[in-house]
Description:
By secondary structure, the chain is of the alpha/beta class. It contains five helices and seven strands.
Amino acid sequence: MPRTILVLEDEEVLYQLVHDLLSFEGYAVSRLTDFNNLVGELQARPADAIVADVNLRGANGIELVEALRTHPEFNNIYVLLTSGIDYRQEALQRGADDFLQKPYMPDELMDLLAQRLAG
Length: 119
């Protein structure tokens, strides 16, 4: 059974690129468009990892991750935040497992996921 990645990206072109890359590598990909329901979405459709943009229309990826981490049942989900601005320190302090600054190479994303989801 393939590992499931939940993608939080509001830019359609960027979402499609990440979706296609992850799908090509054998991951099952789901998308969240209602950022206010992250916990409910994960309860309904569990994910092994989340790849989320920091700057989302109507939401902040760092705040979403911080809120998610208050639910112990989701602490095993690998969370990778991305942004064109270097939020690495803040993202890691507030609950993300990793941070990639855009633009990043596809291999960087795939290597992080492979390392964290191996096994």
